[in-house]
Fold this sequence. Notes:
By secondary structure, the protein is of the alpha+beta class. It has one domain: 2-Layer Sandwich (Alpha-Beta Plaits), CATH 3.30.70.100. The chain contains two helices and four strands. A four-stranded antiparallel sheet has the order 2-3-1-4, covered by helices on one side. Strand 2 (31-37) and strand 3 form a beta hairpin. The longest helix is centred in the first third of the chain and has 11 residues, at 16-26. The protein is globular and about 30 Å long. 16% of the residues are buried. The mean pLDDT is 93.
Amino acid sequence: xTYLEAVYxxxxxxxxxxxxxxxxxxxxxxxxRIQFNEKERTVRVRFDAxxxxxxxxxxxxxxAGIDVQEQLVLA
Length: 75
């Protein structure tokens, strides 16, 4: 397994329904951790790169109702 982290900026603060939907994303095989930073309006996802790609992770977040705008480049 090769784990990667991706950080996405979101526009609208997630509500209760979106945070509940994130629980189902956490159960997707290959997703290891999801962390929100409300101050910076970012969500950091650690995932298994042999199972998922960054596009698929962003799509899962959008399906959960998170208003993903862009993926940030990690230094």
